[in-house]
Write a structure and sequence with these properties.
The complex is a heterodimer of chains A (459) and B (257). With 459 residues, chain A is an all-alpha fold. Helix content of chain A is 78%, strand content 0%. Chain A folds into two domains: 2-177, no CATH class; 223-458, Orthogonal Bundle (MetI-like fold). The chains are: A mainly alpha (459), B alpha/beta (257).
């Protein structure tokens, strides 16, 4: 039914485009000078035909189930678990209910079917009314030779604005929920304990009924959420990753931009970029099953104790994953250094490597730094590789051979499985998420500023 | 000093240049006199720039470019494999169409060449080179108080003189100029032309230009290029007053090009 309605609306849109256009052409034959090309009158009519109807249709479909639910449940005030009851009614109505059929369910199901029919009919009526109303309105406007071009521009502007508004509101919503939950967390756990505490053991808050935490227990929990080991672990693994990715990425970027022939570049750049397309979980088990054990045996033969899940393995693989970000971006940046600068350098007798070292790289440096910062924020946010390869123990260590953990990993650990939503442990995930968000936000901001500054230099 | 004036500094013989399969220069034979300004004129795409880029082998930078034939500087062939391009370009400086100062300070822009060629042993010597080069390019008075500011902060005309100073910093014998004034306003152009006049006392200059007035003002010898061939070479006076070739006549009177 719904797809039928949508189909009808779309067909009407299409035909009203042609109708509007031909109406406009008729105006021309009556010796009226049009204020826009005939096609704009077509667009105008088509947009007025489609948009109001589609908006009503969308809103209706969005709110209909909730309204019907309220209407039905109002008839059964005696039912205790209302959600369950309503689900049962729905599945009974759809003929796939396999539990005990009560009289209430039967009654509710009859009620549901009648409301459903009413809802559907009224939906069709309202949409049809909207279609007719807006079409007549737009048709009248066309007959009066309105400024169709300007009007279409305005409608399009509003449409585009709405789209960006949706994106912005979603972002704001996520941030607000992060903030809100974090605030709840910080109302039970001292924020300074969270930021400066060096012991992370949220499992101590586990299996406890959150609503029944006594003040004594709360006091005891205060030092269970020290996030320093997580931040240290995150920074440490990101550092190892950058030690791998920056030189390799930068050098391959320089090779691609300056030395590789067009043919080599054409094939090798996409190949390197494939690295970025490999799912991180694949990197993860590669790190956990191949690289980790390799380091372990290597370490053992050297007489070192290497944990089978080590920061080194995770960092190395993460570095490999990040290489294409740096190589690809720095390749682009180096390429955008004007050729005239290189020629100026060659003309004075500089060799290729001197030119690259002394002119090209300094000129591209801000852009390169920007690409590195973007890569760092990618490294900090990476989860899967660390979950699989670096371990879960929150060790405060600078030994790359020991296992360590990161913020993202701990968020995963906290939220995996059944959780009480209001326990401090769960809320800790939001607090971690918030701090991570702020950290990457700052990094991205700096990176974008640096890149922007660079752009201004040559334009 | 003036005795050297008619001595041939650069001699191009049977020079052919190809970009991929397209031939850009056909059998060019051209002599360029020492301590004189030679202007190359002709319509766009006629090969003037390609020709001067053969003199310091800048065409090496372009992958698909192939140069055949001979270019001699002071009687020594430069188109041979064992010729050191670095030394060649130290001897033959170049100034480009669009000012292209490096994104470095004014001082570092000039010091760049001497550093590469190891021309200065200490800071004093380097300061000295920078000062002389900027003075030769008539820029010293304008920038002496702000040598640490970026070269890109100068005006277009100043940037171009900075690039000339940069070319002079390694004591070249020849300076190639590829339409050095095409991005500049008339006042800046006049300054550069004045400078060129001054520089020809000590350097051999080859200048590509689209402005015939400029060729008349600055050069002693003019070569007219058309479709990759040299149509006519003679003293500037002769070319502009009494050209031997009909095509040259048409071009300088603005009938085509």
């Amino acid at each position: 039914m719904n797809s039928l309605i949508a189909g009808v609306i779309l067909i009407l849109c299409l035909s009203s485009y042609f109708f509007g256009r031909s109406e406009a052409r008729k105006l021309v034959t009556q010796n009226i000078k049009l204020k826009a090309l005939p096609a704009y009158y077509g667009y105008y009519l088509s947009l007025w035909c489609g948009l109001p109807a589609l908006i009503i249709f969308g809103c209706w479909s969005l709110f209909e189930p909730a309204i019907i639910k309220v209407l039905i449940l109002n008839n059964f005030p005696q039912i205790e678990s209302k959600d369950l009851f309503y689900e049962q009614t729905l599945s009974f109505f759809n003929g796939n209910f396999s539990g005990e059929i009560t009289n209430e369910i039967k009654a509710a199901s009859i009620k549901y079917s009648s409301i459903n029919i009413i809802a559907q009919n009224s939906k069709i009526v309202i949409i049809a009314a909207a279609l007719i109303g807006s079409l007549t309105f737009a048709y009248r406007k066309i007959q009066k030779n309105n400024k169709a071009r300007d009007d279409v521009e305005i409608i399009l502007k509003v449409l585009l604005f709405t789209s960006s508004l949706v994106a912005i509101l979603t972002t704001v919503g996520i941030i607000v929920s992060l903030l809100f939950e974090s605030l709840k967390f910080f109302s039970t756990i001292n924020i300074f304990e969270f930021i400066f505490g060096t012991s992370w053991s949220p499992q101590r808050a586990f299996v406890r009924d959150a609503s029944a935490i006594t003040p004594e227990e709360l006091l005891e929990l205060q030092d269970a959420f020290g996030s320093v080991p997580l931040f240290a672990g995150t920074a440490f693994i990101a550092l190892i990753a950058m030690c791998v990715a920056v030189p390799i990425g930068l050098f391959s970027g320089i090779y691609l931009a300056e030395y590789a022939s067009t043919k080599v570049r054409k094939y090798s750049k996409p190949i390197i970029e494939i690295l970025a397309g490999i799912p991180t979980v694949v990197y993860g088990f590669f790190a956990a099953l191949t690289v980790g054990p390799f380091f372990r045996t290597l370490g053992e033969s050297l007489g070192l104790t290497v944990s089978s899940e080590s920061a080194l393995a995770a960092g190395l693989i993460m570095g490999v994953m990040i290489i294409p970000y740096i190589s690809s971006l720095s390749d682009d940046v180096i390429n955008s250094v004007p050729q005239s600068l290189r020629e100026g350098s060659y003309a004075i007798g500089a060799t290729k490597s001197e030119t690259i070292k002394k002119v090209v790289i300094p000129a591209a440096l801000p852009g390169i730094i920007g690409s590195i910062l973007l890569a760092v924020s990618r490294a900090i946010g990476e989860t899967m590789i660390v979950v699989m390869a670096a371990g879960l123990a929150a060790n405060l260590t600078i030994n790359p051979l020991e296992s360590t953990t990161t913020i993202t990993t701990q968020i995963v650990m906290i939220l995996v499985g059944d959780q009480e939503f209001d326990s401090p442990k769960t809320q800790a995930a939001f607090a971690l998420g918030l701090t991570l968000f702020i950290a990457t936000l700052i990094l991205n901001y700096i990176a974008l500023r640096v890149v922007k500054k660079y752009r201004e230099k040559y334009d | 000093m003036e005795l050297n004036n008619s001595k041939i500094k650069i001699k191009a013989k049977n020079l052919n240049v190809f970009y991929g399969k397209k031939q850009a220069l056909f059998n060019i034979n051209l002599d360029i006199n020492q301590k004189e300004v030679t202007a190359l004129i002709g319509p766009s795409g006629c090969g003037k720039s390609t020709f001067i880029r053969c003199i310091n082998r800048m065409n090496d930078v372009i992958d698909i470019c192939k140069v055949e034939g001979s270019v001699e500087i002071d009687g020594a062939e430069i188109n041979e494999k064992n010729v050191d391009v670095v030394t060649l370009r130290e001897k033959v400086g170049m100034v480009f169409q669009k000012p292209n100062p490096f994104p470095k300070s004014i001082y570092d822009n000039i010091a760049y060449g001497p550093i590469i060629h190891g021309a200065a042993e200490n800071k004093d010597q380097m300061d000295n080179i920078v000062e002389t080069s900027l003075k030769k390019a008539a820029l010293w008075d304008e920038v002496k108080d702000r040598l640490n500011e970026p070269g890109t902060s100068l005006s277009g005309g100043q940037q171009q003189r900075l690039c000339i100073a940069r070319a002079l910093s390694v004591n070249p014998e020849v300076i190639l100029m590829d339409e050095p004034c095409s991005a500049l306003d008339p006042i800046a152009t006049a300054k550069i032309e004045e400078l060129i006049d001054d520089l020809k006392k000590s350097y051999t200059i080859v200048i590509v230009t689209h402005s015939m007035a400029q060729a008349v003002r600055v050069s002693q010898k003019t070569g007219f290029f058309h479709l990759g061939k040299i149509i006519e070479v003679d003293s500037t006076e002769k070319i502009f007053k009494n050209p031997a070739n009909k095509m040259t006549q048409d071009y300088i009177t603005g009938r085509f090009g």
